[in-house]
Design brief:
This protein is mostly helical. The chain is built from 15 helices and no strands. 76% of the residues lie in helices and 0% in strands.
Protein backbone atom coordinates (compact mmCIF):
# COMPACT_ATOMS: atom_id res chain seq x y z
CA UNK A 1 0.00 0.00 0.00
CA UNK A 2 1.42 3.38 -1.00
CA UNK A 3 2.43 5.73 1.80
CA UNK A 4 1.93 9.49 1.64
CA UNK A 5 4.73 11.48 3.30
CA UNK A 6 3.83 14.35 5.58
CA UNK A 7 6.02 17.34 6.40
CA UNK A 8 7.94 15.50 9.09
CA UNK A 9 8.80 12.71 6.68
CA UNK A 10 6.51 10.15 8.36
CA UNK A 11 4.25 7.97 6.23
CA UNK A 12 0.54 8.65 6.74
CA UNK A 13 -1.08 6.21 4.31
CA UNK A 14 -2.73 4.05 6.97
CA UNK A 15 -3.31 6.96 9.32
CA UNK A 16 -4.92 8.97 6.54
CA UNK A 17 -7.26 6.08 5.76
CA UNK A 18 -8.38 5.80 9.39
CA UNK A 19 -8.89 9.56 9.70
CA UNK A 20 -10.86 9.74 6.47
CA UNK A 21 -13.16 6.82 7.28
CA UNK A 22 -13.37 7.06 11.07
CA UNK A 23 -17.08 7.91 11.11
CA UNK A 24 -17.93 4.86 9.00
CA UNK A 25 -15.65 2.65 11.08
CA UNK A 26 -17.31 3.80 14.30
CA UNK A 27 -20.71 2.94 12.79
CA UNK A 28 -19.51 -0.50 11.67
CA UNK A 29 -18.09 -1.15 15.14
CA UNK A 30 -21.33 -0.05 16.80
CA UNK A 31 -23.52 -2.27 14.64
CA UNK A 32 -21.10 -5.18 15.01
CA UNK A 33 -21.24 -4.95 18.81
CA UNK A 34 -25.01 -4.44 18.78
CA UNK A 35 -25.77 -7.38 16.47
CA UNK A 36 -23.24 -9.61 18.22
CA UNK A 37 -24.72 -8.74 21.61
CA UNK A 38 -28.24 -9.36 20.35
CA UNK A 39 -27.32 -12.75 18.89
CA UNK A 40 -25.64 -13.82 22.13
CA UNK A 41 -28.52 -12.62 24.30
CA UNK A 42 -31.17 -14.19 22.08
CA UNK A 43 -29.25 -17.47 21.88
CA UNK A 44 -28.74 -17.74 25.65
CA UNK A 45 -32.38 -16.89 26.38
CA UNK A 46 -33.76 -18.88 23.41
CA UNK A 47 -35.60 -15.88 21.99
CA UNK A 48 -37.07 -15.66 18.53
CA UNK A 49 -36.91 -12.43 16.51
CA UNK A 50 -40.58 -11.86 17.38
CA UNK A 51 -39.85 -12.28 21.09
CA UNK A 52 -36.94 -9.85 20.88
CA UNK A 53 -38.97 -7.19 19.07
CA UNK A 54 -41.78 -7.56 21.61
CA UNK A 55 -39.35 -7.18 24.54
CA UNK A 56 -37.80 -4.08 23.00
CA UNK A 57 -41.19 -2.51 22.29
CA UNK A 58 -42.32 -3.27 25.84
CA UNK A 59 -39.19 -1.64 27.26
CA UNK A 60 -39.63 1.50 25.12
CA UNK A 61 -43.33 1.97 25.84
CA UNK A 62 -43.59 0.56 29.38
CA UNK A 63 -40.66 2.27 31.07
CA UNK A 64 -39.76 5.84 31.93
CA UNK A 65 -36.38 5.13 30.36
CA UNK A 66 -37.98 4.11 27.07
CA UNK A 67 -38.56 7.62 25.68
CA UNK A 68 -35.09 8.70 26.88
CA UNK A 69 -33.56 5.72 25.09
CA UNK A 70 -35.47 6.62 21.92
CA UNK A 71 -34.37 10.26 22.08
CA UNK A 72 -30.78 9.19 22.77
CA UNK A 73 -30.80 6.80 19.81
CA UNK A 74 -32.21 9.54 17.58
CA UNK A 75 -29.55 11.98 18.80
CA UNK A 76 -26.71 9.55 17.98
CA UNK A 77 -28.30 8.54 14.67
CA UNK A 78 -25.83 10.50 12.44
CA UNK A 79 -22.92 8.67 14.06
CA UNK A 80 -24.39 5.17 13.71
CA UNK A 81 -26.05 5.79 10.32
CA UNK A 82 -29.57 4.90 11.40
CA UNK A 83 -32.23 6.17 8.94
CA UNK A 84 -34.18 9.16 10.25
CA UNK A 85 -37.41 8.21 8.48
CA UNK A 86 -37.49 4.77 10.11
CA UNK A 87 -37.00 6.26 13.58
CA UNK A 88 -39.68 8.89 12.99
CA UNK A 89 -42.21 6.27 11.91
CA UNK A 90 -41.17 4.14 14.89
CA UNK A 91 -41.80 7.04 17.25
CA UNK A 92 -45.37 7.37 16.04
CA UNK A 93 -45.97 3.63 15.99
CA UNK A 94 -44.67 2.98 19.51
CA UNK A 95 -45.66 6.10 21.41
CA UNK A 96 -48.65 7.42 19.49
CA UNK A 97 -49.21 11.19 19.21
CA UNK A 98 -46.91 11.92 22.20
CA UNK A 99 -44.16 10.40 20.07
CA UNK A 100 -44.17 13.68 18.14
CA UNK A 101 -42.60 15.43 21.15
CA UNK A 102 -39.90 12.76 21.55
CA UNK A 103 -39.18 12.82 17.82
CA UNK A 104 -38.89 16.61 17.62
CA UNK A 105 -36.42 16.63 20.51
CA UNK A 106 -34.38 13.74 19.12
CA UNK A 107 -34.43 14.93 15.51
CA UNK A 108 -33.22 18.42 16.33
CA UNK A 109 -30.58 17.08 18.70
CA UNK A 110 -29.34 14.76 15.93
CA UNK A 111 -29.26 17.69 13.50
CA UNK A 112 -26.97 19.57 15.89
CA UNK A 113 -24.75 16.50 16.27
CA UNK A 114 -24.35 16.24 12.49
CA UNK A 115 -23.80 20.01 12.31
CA UNK A 116 -21.03 19.65 14.89
CA UNK A 117 -19.44 16.78 12.95
CA UNK A 118 -19.46 18.89 9.79
CA UNK A 119 -17.96 21.85 11.66
CA UNK A 120 -15.20 19.67 13.11
CA UNK A 121 -14.30 17.56 10.09
CA UNK A 122 -14.45 20.36 7.54
CA UNK A 123 -14.81 20.28 3.77
CA UNK A 124 -13.67 16.69 3.26
CA UNK A 125 -16.92 15.44 4.78
CA UNK A 126 -19.10 17.41 2.36
CA UNK A 127 -17.00 16.30 -0.60
CA UNK A 128 -17.55 12.66 0.36
CA UNK A 129 -21.34 12.99 0.37
CA UNK A 130 -23.08 11.73 -2.75
CA UNK A 131 -25.46 13.93 -4.71
CA UNK A 132 -24.49 17.19 -3.02
CA UNK A 133 -24.45 19.30 -6.19
CA UNK A 134 -27.65 21.02 -5.12
CA UNK A 135 -26.04 21.89 -1.78
CA UNK A 136 -23.31 23.77 -3.64
CA UNK A 137 -26.03 25.87 -5.30
CA UNK A 138 -27.26 26.93 -1.85
CA UNK A 139 -23.82 27.65 -0.38
CA UNK A 140 -23.82 31.43 -0.78
CA UNK A 141 -27.34 31.80 0.58
CA UNK A 142 -26.59 29.54 3.54
CA UNK A 143 -23.73 31.81 4.54
CA UNK A 144 -25.61 35.08 3.96
CA UNK A 145 -29.05 34.09 5.25
CA UNK A 146 -28.74 30.97 7.37
CA UNK A 147 -32.22 30.80 8.88
CA UNK A 148 -34.31 31.32 5.74
CA UNK A 149 -32.13 29.11 3.57
CA UNK A 150 -32.14 26.20 6.03
CA UNK A 151 -35.89 26.68 6.45
CA UNK A 152 -36.32 26.48 2.67
CA UNK A 153 -34.17 23.36 2.39
CA UNK A 154 -36.12 21.63 5.15
CA UNK A 155 -39.46 22.49 3.57
CA UNK A 156 -38.18 21.10 0.27
CA UNK A 157 -37.28 17.82 2.02
CA UNK A 158 -33.67 17.92 0.83
CA UNK A 159 -31.61 15.05 2.33
CA UNK A 160 -31.65 15.71 6.07
CA UNK A 161 -28.11 14.76 7.04
CA UNK A 162 -26.48 16.29 3.96
CA UNK A 163 -28.00 19.65 4.91
CA UNK A 164 -26.79 19.19 8.50
CA UNK A 165 -23.23 18.37 7.47
CA UNK A 166 -23.14 21.13 4.86
CA UNK A 167 -24.27 23.72 7.42
CA UNK A 168 -21.49 22.63 9.76
CA UNK A 169 -18.85 22.54 7.03
CA UNK A 170 -19.81 26.06 5.95
CA UNK A 171 -19.83 27.15 9.60
CA UNK A 172 -23.08 29.03 9.22
CA UNK A 173 -24.76 30.63 12.24
CA UNK A 174 -25.81 27.78 14.51
CA UNK A 175 -28.88 29.60 15.85
CA UNK A 176 -30.19 30.25 12.34
CA UNK A 177 -29.52 26.62 11.47
CA UNK A 178 -31.28 25.32 14.59
CA UNK A 179 -34.42 27.44 14.22
CA UNK A 180 -34.59 26.85 10.48
CA UNK A 181 -34.44 23.13 11.22
CA UNK A 182 -36.99 23.21 14.06
CA UNK A 183 -39.59 25.11 12.03
CA UNK A 184 -38.84 23.74 8.58
CA UNK A 185 -38.80 20.08 9.66
CA UNK A 186 -42.07 20.30 11.58
CA UNK A 187 -44.49 19.47 8.71
CA UNK A 188 -42.48 16.41 7.67
CA UNK A 189 -42.04 15.23 11.27
CA UNK A 190 -45.74 15.55 12.04
CA UNK A 191 -46.59 13.79 8.78
CA UNK A 192 -44.39 10.75 9.41
CA UNK A 193 -45.19 10.45 13.12
CA UNK A 194 -48.91 10.44 12.36
CA UNK A 195 -48.28 7.92 9.62
CA UNK A 196 -46.51 5.71 12.15
CA UNK A 197 -49.51 5.87 14.48
CA UNK A 198 -51.75 4.38 11.77
CA UNK A 199 -49.86 1.08 11.36
CA UNK A 200 -51.99 -0.82 13.85
CA UNK A 201 -50.70 -3.02 16.68
CA UNK A 202 -47.30 -4.64 17.01
CA UNK A 203 -48.83 -8.10 16.57
CA UNK A 204 -50.44 -7.00 13.32
CA UNK A 205 -47.16 -5.57 12.06
CA UNK A 206 -45.17 -8.70 12.96
CA UNK A 207 -47.80 -10.83 11.24
CA UNK A 208 -47.40 -8.75 8.07
CA UNK A 209 -50.87 -7.24 8.35
CA UNK A 210 -49.90 -3.65 7.61
CA UNK A 211 -52.78 -1.29 6.98
CA UNK A 212 -52.85 2.49 6.85
CA UNK A 213 -55.63 4.72 8.07
CA UNK A 214 -56.71 6.51 4.87
CA UNK A 215 -57.62 9.73 6.73
CA UNK A 216 -54.24 9.94 8.44
CA UNK A 217 -52.46 9.09 5.20
CA UNK A 218 -54.35 11.83 3.34
CA UNK A 219 -53.54 14.32 6.08
CA UNK A 220 -49.85 13.35 5.95
CA UNK A 221 -49.74 13.86 2.18
CA UNK A 222 -51.49 17.22 2.60
CA UNK A 223 -48.84 18.33 5.12
CA UNK A 224 -46.09 17.45 2.67
CA UNK A 225 -47.88 19.40 -0.07
CA UNK A 226 -48.28 22.42 2.23
CA UNK A 227 -44.59 22.22 3.12
CA UNK A 228 -43.55 22.25 -0.53
CA UNK A 229 -46.01 25.06 -1.29
CA UNK A 230 -44.52 27.23 1.46
CA UNK A 231 -41.02 26.52 0.15
CA UNK A 232 -42.04 27.67 -3.33
CA UNK A 233 -43.44 30.88 -1.87
CA UNK A 234 -40.18 31.52 -0.01
CA UNK A 235 -38.19 30.91 -3.18
CA UNK A 236 -40.27 33.40 -5.16
CA UNK A 237 -40.19 35.99 -2.39
CA UNK A 238 -36.44 35.72 -2.10
CA UNK A 239 -35.91 35.79 -5.84
CA UNK A 240 -34.06 32.48 -5.61
CA UNK A 241 -33.09 31.16 -9.00
CA UNK A 242 -31.85 27.87 -7.56
CA UNK A 243 -33.84 24.88 -8.70
CA UNK A 244 -34.44 22.17 -6.13
Amino acid sequence: MAKVMIDGGEPMGDKGFWLKHRAKLVAVLFWGVLLGGYYLYAHVNELTVRDSVTLLATFLTGSLLGPLFYIGLYTLRPIIFFPATALTLLGGFLFGPIGLVYTIVGANASAMVAYGIGWYLGEDLLQEQEGTGFIQRYTKRMRENSFETVLLMRLLFLPYDVVNYAAGVLKINWQGFLWGTVIGSLPGTVSFVLLGTSFGTLDDLLAGNVSLDPKIFAFSVALVAVSIGISQYLKRRGGDEVEA
